[in-house]
Design brief:
Layout: E1 4-7, E2 10-13, E3 18-24, E4 32-39, E5 46-52, E6 57-59, E7 67-72, E8 77-82, E9 91-99, E10 113-114, E11 118-123
Parallel strand pairs: 2-11
Antiparallel strand pairs: 1-3, 3-8, 4-5, 4-9, 5-6, 7-8, 9-10, 9-11
Length: about 120
């Protein structure tokens, strides 16, 4: 069973920055996606940014130019750098891992493992 643990959530004012981290236990997919999702009450979980094992990146349009996903392979850790944060970015952010089988890395239906989430709150 793969374990994912997020950290780095918090509260900042609009225009501020945060960095989320997700540390994964060992896994052995040859091709995979590690991605960030977010969810607010009453809404579906949405893919924010995805990183495929071959280095392909994908971002939701609303975060392009403001968020950056990256991975430190030596530490088995996924990051999400978030800048120029807006109140509408407020959500619970989840790290997800799934074996890549041709779907978008921002498709939650392709995720097999989830972290417990990190809360991000942006005040105006």
């Amino acid at each position: 069973q793969v374990q994912l643990e997020e950290s780095g959530g918090g509260s900042v004012e609009a225009g501020g920055s945060l960095r989320l981290s997700c540390t994964a236990s060992d896994f052995h997919y040859s091709m995979y996606c590690m991605s960030w999702f977010r969810q607010t009450p009453g809404k579906e979980r949405e893919g924010v940014a995805g990183l495929r094992s071959d280095g392909t990146l994908t971002y939701q349009d609303s975060v392009k130019g403001r968020f950056a996903i990256s991975r430190d392979n030596a530490k088995n850790t996924l990051y999400l750098e978030m800048e120029n944060l807006k109140p509408e970015d407020s959500a619970m952010y989840y790290c997800g891992l799934g074996e890549f089988r041709g779907w978008s890395c921002r498709d939650k239906d392709g995720i097999q493992y989830w972290g417990k989430g990190a809360l991000v709150t942006i005040s105006s």
